Amino acid sequence: MSGFTKGCVFINGFNLGRYWNIGPTLDLYIPAPLIKKGKNEIVVFETERFERDYITANDYRVKREEEK
To answer: Is 64 exposed, middle or buried (0-12, 13-18, 19+ CB in 10 A)?
Structure first.
């Protein structure tokens, strides 16, 4: 959840979980059965502040600078 601070994420009404930029939860994973063909609704509830107004979903894990 790069660019976001603290909050939770929902996909198609299912709570994926919470995130916080200081950890422990920095990444969220979407179980394949939750993804529908066509449009999917993703809701990000940010409680602090955000640095961007979009999210990116990948089919691979992105390593952070401190992990490289």
So the answer is: exposed
Any idea where the domains of the chain sit in the sequence? 6-67
CA nearest 19: which of 47, 58, 61? 47
**pTM for this entry:** 0.77
Read off the pLDDT of residues 23-67 as tens digits, 9 standing for 90 and up: 766 788 899 999 999 999 999 999 998 787 888 888 887 776 666
Q: Is 6 helix (H, G, I), strand (E, B) or coil?
A: strand
